[in-house]
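Quick bug: Type III toxin-antitoxin system ToxN/AbiQ family toxin output formatted oddly.
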Amino acid sequence: MTKKICSYDSEQDNKKKYQTRRLKSPDNIIRTFLLIGGYKVKFCFLTNNFFELYKDCEEIEKKNNRPYATVCLLKYKDLYFAIPIRHHIKHQYAIFTDKEKTKGLDLSKTLIIKDLKYIIQNKTAFISQSEYSQLITKEAFIVSKLNSYIKKYIKALEHQDIKKNYLLCSMSCLKYFHDELNIKTSY
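Here's what came back:
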């Protein structure tokens, strides 16, 4: 069962607008993510141009139907953080949506959306009712966990000689966004 999500229309004075159609991106490939900015939720699509821009970044999930959950941290102005909804997660850097702790938001695959032109606006996306119910009740928790993950990643960069830190840094998509996060390292 899928759940219709309230889409957010920024062109109408930030009023909520409901759409009832299942929509796909212009190339008919579904790429969705959840946007939490100022605790407003939005599910929408990332453009092909975004994935083309990062096509050589091997850690970025490129599955055509990959749902993304995006969190806007006010601390990092003008940046949107896209976190994929994944199944078969086998590590601790996630916000789980099931009791088995295998499904949820994979923080290790977080992307930074630098420009809203990479977000297809005003299109409704659908996710399962159970995942929607879990995510919608954890908005502040998601922001907090993402902030903690970013801090942990930055700290791990300084000690990559430790195996767990090396794995965290090598598997994280944040390694493609050091400039955006103002990370100045020689690692």
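Actually, after a second look the formatting is fine. The chain has one domain: 2-176. Closing.
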